[in-house]
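Data availability (excerpt). The following record was deposited with the supplementary files.
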Amino acid sequence: MQREHEVLITAAAAAGAGTLIRGGAARGAPAEDKGWRQGPLGQEAGEGQRRWESSGIEDLLDGMSRIEFVLRFTLSLPALSSTIVGTSAVDHLRSNVAIAEKGPLPADLYEEAKARLK
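Predicted structure:
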């Protein structure tokens, strides 16, 4: 939800540095059980939801949950070294691991999502 960070992440990778992302799943905000009650760090209240809704990303999910899409979108950035996705619930941890095991989004879906989330 914060593509503005991609330039710095890519520059760090080009310089040989790894990047560890905290909050790569937008603090869980898009998850159905969170309902955007809080948003990504560093964004004004409601900005993550506004970006999601105005982008039309929902049309690309094709059966994925919103949190799966966000996490896999984050994992799709080639320059990203690692992401930390915190949780206080074991079920969420299991779900996040299962999502991460699916890997990045398919390339065409990732490119379309990037175009919509300018």
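Summary of structural features: The longest helix spans residues 90-102.
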